[in-house]
């Protein structure tokens, strides 16, 4: 069989199979690296409090790596722009979200101030901070939520969605942080609201089994590419062997027929 495999045609096909196997193996390695990377815990730098503008900039989407980052931001809340959300975790039936204008950048920032079980109380608490005075808010910064996450019921909303706030806030100059801050107890107390129960992000390692499955699948494909070449060569060799046997049998049959014919008579 290896005599057949050494022919130029099959050597070229072997090279192609090896190239495909290499590509498949590379894809398997990439999927394996993703499964391991996805299993790494988040960095613990989120517990070091930083100025908001050192963490992100207006208009920049917040990556998951800074979700829950402790931040400090100074600014003034805008009167009449308090938004009430419901159906959220962290405490209370209603949570007040204020429109803070950052004193340094001038950009708008949604701030979840605190909670109450009464809608009026939550709204009054948010407006209590809109006296024009600058406040320093400490809390955790999170990526913006999508309006699609809203549990919309009877005109009520649940997502901290800057994409929706741009249409509801009265005072807005098109500069906004693509994220929001959940304020700590100091701000909630100033608003006479309950403090949102917010804690450090979990750092459990969750191995990505789906990516591992894909990695194994690509390795199988790589092996199959080489195996397919082997089957093609073996099939070609078996066909040649069969052809040779048939040719030998045909030659033997003709010889037997020639031997069975009577010799011509001599006069």
UniProtKB/TrEMBL annotation:
Keywords of the record: Cell membrane, Membrane, Transmembrane, Transmembrane helix
Chief localization: membrane
Transmembrane segments: 209-230
Region of interest (Disordered), residue spans: 243-267
Topology in membrane: Multi-pass membrane protein
Keyword Transmembrane: yes
A Pfam family of this chain: SURF1
PROSITE patterns, alphabetized: SURF1
Secretion signal, residue range per the UniProt entry: none
Locations listed in the record: Cell membrane
InterPro entries in the record: Surf1/Shy1 (IPR002994)
UniProt KW Ligase keyword: no
Domain of life: Bacteria
Family: Belongs to the SURF1 family.
Annotated protein name in UniProt: SURF1-like protein
Organism annotation: Curtobacterium caseinilyticum
Taxon lineage: Bacteria, Bacillati, Actinomycetota, Actinomycetes, Micrococcales
């Amino acid at each position: 069989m290896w005599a057949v495999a050494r022919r130029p045609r099959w050597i070229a096909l072997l090279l192609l199979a090896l190239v495909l196997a290499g590509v498949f193996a590379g894809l398997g390695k990439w999927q394996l690296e993703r499964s391991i990377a996805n299993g790494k815990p988040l960095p613990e730098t989120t517990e070091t409090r930083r100025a908001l503008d050192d963490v992100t900039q207006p208009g920049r989407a917040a990556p998951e790596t800074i979700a829950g980052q402790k931040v400090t931001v100074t600014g003034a809340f805008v009167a009449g722009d308090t938004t009430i959300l419901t159906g959220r975790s962290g405490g209370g039936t209603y949570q007040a979200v204020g429109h803070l204008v950052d004193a340094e950048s001038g950009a708008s920032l949604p701030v979840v101030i605190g909670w109450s079980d009464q809608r009026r109380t939550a709204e009054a608490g948010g407006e209590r901070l809109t006296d024009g005075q600058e406040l320093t808010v400490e809390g955790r910064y999170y990526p913006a939520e999508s309006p699609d996450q809203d549990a919309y019921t009877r005109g009520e909303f649940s997502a901290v969605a800057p994409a929706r706030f741009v249409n509801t806030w009265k005072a807005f100059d098109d500069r906004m942080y693509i994220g929001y801050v959940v304020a700590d107890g100091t701000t909630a107390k100033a608003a006479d609201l309950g403090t949102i129960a917010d804690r450090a992000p979990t750092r459990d390692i969750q191995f990505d089994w789906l990516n591992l499955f894909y990695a194994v699948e690509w390795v199988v494909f790589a092996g199959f590419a080489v195996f397919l070449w082997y089957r093609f060569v073996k099939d070609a060799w078996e066909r040649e062997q069969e052809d040779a046997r048939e040719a030998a049998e045909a030659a033997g049959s003709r010889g037997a027929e020639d031997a069975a014919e009577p010799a011509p008579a001599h006069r």
